[in-house]
Each structure stands twice: as structure tokens, then as C-alpha cells.
Design brief:
single chain, 7-stranded parallel sheet, about 35% helix, binds nicotinamide-adenine-dinucleotide, binds D-malate
Length: about 325
């Protein structure tokens, strides 16, 4: 059986497929038409976030049985089309959560203490000591949208620096949210109370564009917004307006509506924005974790039919 790896995967994962006797082709950066050719004769497709598994690609597949996402987000996979085609889709929950939570915490520190602008200023020969007075995290309210694997770890990190942690997640009971380290609140309360609001939800029909002019206006004036989840959950134009008016004091983005960010994006002209190029899961540890997990899960499914962490159930 053949495995196609169409986005970069740590060598440890590639080796597991080989040790299990699969034929492995690693071919990254393919255009959609190239991928439609490459998918023929492939039983297992390994992706991260760059490959788009569309209905068109699935229609071109002839023997495909499983799509494995080395990571969490599945907004780049047409799951109903995969189900209709009889293809199992699986991801690797929890394997990169610590990395993403640590990056979100890093962004919170960076925003509170102007680390990025301070660095740039010093390198440009400026000494902006007076302009860059910061704010301490101790005693401030950290609002977490989405109390899943990443949200839960961020709650621990926030508590560790003596922040008051509140969380909103309609898919958990109030008791579960408390057990995950946050005071359960409604969405409106999260917006109104958080000094730092960090987003940790998947991009779905419900969450796309959730942070727009109306919701940003409901946030506490002068709060900070952090998005290490998915581009498009925050409407970038509306965020730029909120940064310009001072409604939002600063924002940190790891994910964007368009990646890489176009050079003329308004975001790039804001001094109050800290950004990273989708680095949430980009640690040595997380990349090995997701690669090993996806290779073990897919090998097991192809050999035994047992699907771990499948998100669909084709007949
Ligand atoms: P998870 O599934 O463990 O947690 C997501 C949580 O969001 C769940 O508890 C779910 O109930 C909740 N949720 C869903 N819709 C909601 C809504 N409308 N309002 C509030 N809560 C809602 O996933 P996770 O591992 O914590 O990852 C969260 C997201 O972060 C992923 O879907 C992925 O898109 C993104 N992510 C980004 C990076 C990165 O590199 N920047 C790394 C890992 C994950
Ligand atoms: C994820 O959803 O796991 C992240 O986007 C990480 C990635 O694959 O880059």
C-alpha cells in the first residue's frame, strides 16, 4: 500500500510508515492539479495545513482510504466529501497543544511588555523607554475562548502567572470548564471582562468572522486580543479599525486570513500588532509528536481497520 506525504512531516513519522512496509512518497508544495495526479494509487494521504483536501481532489482519488492530519485543525479538509467517498479522516488531538499554548502565552507577554517593538526600536537606534511602559499580568483577567486541549493548558499557564482565568466553551458544562482551570462565563461576559482574550477554537461556520466590528466593540476598552487558532476567526479589517481607535490596545496573530500575509495588508502597518508566521505547532517536540502519532494511527487503520481519532464514519 502507498502513502503520500504532501506537507512537511518529521522524519520519525516517515520512518514508521517504512518500517510498517508501506511504499512512501514525500512530495510537498504541489499545485492542486499536480496533487490530483499524485493521489492516484495512494491509500493514505498525510497532510498538515497547506494541502487542501477538496471534493475535486477526492474525486480524483482511486484507492484512497484515509487522510491523516499531522496536527489539529481540519478546516482544510472537506469532511462531508471524504465521508461520501468512503475515506476516513483523522487528526492527532493533543499532540501539539503544549506548543500552541506556550506560543499564546509568549504573545501575551510580548503584548504586555512591548517586546517586539522594543526589539525593533533598539535595533533601529531608538531608545523608546518612555513610550513603552508595560502592564503586569498578575491580577489581570485572561479570557479563553475554547477550553479544549490548548485552552486548558493556557489556563494553567495563566494561573501560574497569577492571572484570573475565565473561559467560554458551549460544548463543555460549567463543571468541566472549572475542572479545566477557568471560571465559566458567557461569550458576552468573556468579551466584557477579559484584559487579554486568547482564541482557541476550530474554524467552523460558527466561529469564522466571530471577531468582527460588533464583537470587538463589546470587548473591554484597551484589552488585548490573541489569535493562535485560525485565520478568518478574526476579521482583520475590523481588527485594524479597533487598533486604530484604541478600542483594542494590541493584538497578536499567529494565523491570518491569507498566509503568507500579503505585503500590502493593513495589519503590517500597525505598531500595536505582534505577529508570527503560523508557528503555534512549530517546535521540535510537537512536530515529532504529530508525525509519530499520525503514522501510527494511519498504519493501524490501513492494516487492521481500527480508526483512532477519526472525525467521520463513512459507511
Ligand atoms: P480542541 O478540539 O481540543 O479544542 C477546541 C475547543 O473549542 C473545544 O473544546 C470546542 O468545544 C471549542 N469550541 C468549538 N466551537 C466553539 C465556539 N463557537 N465557542 C467556544 N468554544 C468552541 O482543539 P485544540 O487542540 O485546543 O486546538 C484549537 C484550534 O487551534 C484548532 O482547531 C486549530 O485550528 C488551532 N491550532 C493552531 C495551531 C497553530 O499552529 N497556530 C496549532 C494547533 C491548533
Ligand atoms: C494545527 O491545526 O495543528 C496547526 O495549524 C499546526 C500546523 O499544522 O501548522
Amino acid at each position: 500500500m502507498k502513502i503520500l506525504i504532501s506537507d512537511p512531516l518529521a522524519a520519525q513519522g516517515v520512518q514508521i510508515f517504512k518500517d510498517q512496509g508501506f511504499e512512501v512518497e514525500v512530495k510537498t508544495g504541489m499545485k492542486p492539479d499536480e496533487l490530483k495526479q499524485a493521489i492516484k494509487g495512494v491509500h493514505g494521504l498525510v497532510i498538515r495545513s497547506a494541502t487542501k483536501v477538496t471534493a475535486d481532489l477526492l474525486a480524483a482519488a482511486d484507492v484512497l482510504k484515509v487522510v491523516g492530519r499531522a496536527g489539529t485543525g481540519l478546516d482544510n479538509v472537506d469532511i462531508p466529501a471524504a465521508t461520501a467517498k468512503g475515506v476516513i479522516v483523522m487528526n492527532t488531538p493533543g499532540q501539539n497543544s503544549n506548543a500552541a499554548a506556550e506560543l499564546a502565552m509568549g504573545h501575551i507577554f510580548a503584548l504586555a511588555r512591548h517586546i517586539a517593538r522594543g526589539t525593533r526600536g533598539v535595533k533601529e537606534g531608538k531608545w523608546e523607554k518612555k513610550q513603552l511602559r508595560g502592564t503586569e499580568l498578575k491580577g489581570k483577567t485572561l479570557g479563553i475562548l475554547g477550553m479544549g486541549n490548548i485552552g486548558r493548558i493556557l489556563a494553567e499557564l495563566g494561573t501560574g502567572v497569577k492571572m484570573k482565568v475565565i473561559g467560554y466553551d458551549p460544548y463543555f458544562s460549567a463543571e468541566d470548564i472549572k475542572a479545566r482551570g477557568a471560571e465559566p462565563v458567557s461569550l458576552d461576559e468573556l468579551l466584557a471582562r477579559a484584559d487579554f482574550l486568547s482564541i482557541h477554537v476550530p474554524k467552523t461556520k460558527e466561529t469564522a468572522g466571530l471577531f468582527n466590528a460588533a464583537t470587538l466593540a463589546k470587548m473591554k476598552k484597551g484589552a488585548y486580543l490573541i489569535n493562535c487558532a485560525r485565520g478568518g476567526i478574526v476579521k482583520e479589517e475590523d481588527l485594524c479599525d479597533a487598533l486604530t481607535s484604541g478600542q483594542i490596545a494590541g493584538a497578536a496573530l499567529d494565523v491570518f486570513e491569507v498566509e503568507p500575509v500579503p505585503a500590502d495588508s493593513r495589519l503590517l502597518f500597525s505598531d500595536d500588532l505582534v505577529c508570527t508566521p503560523h508557528l503555534g505547532a512549530n517546535t521540535h517536540e510537537a512536530q515529532v509528536n504529530v508525525a509519530v502519532a499520525v503514522a501510527n494511527q494511519m498504519s493501524k487503520y490501513l492494516k487492521t481497520g481500527e480508526a483512532e481519532f477519526a472525525v467521520n464514519a463513512p459507511k
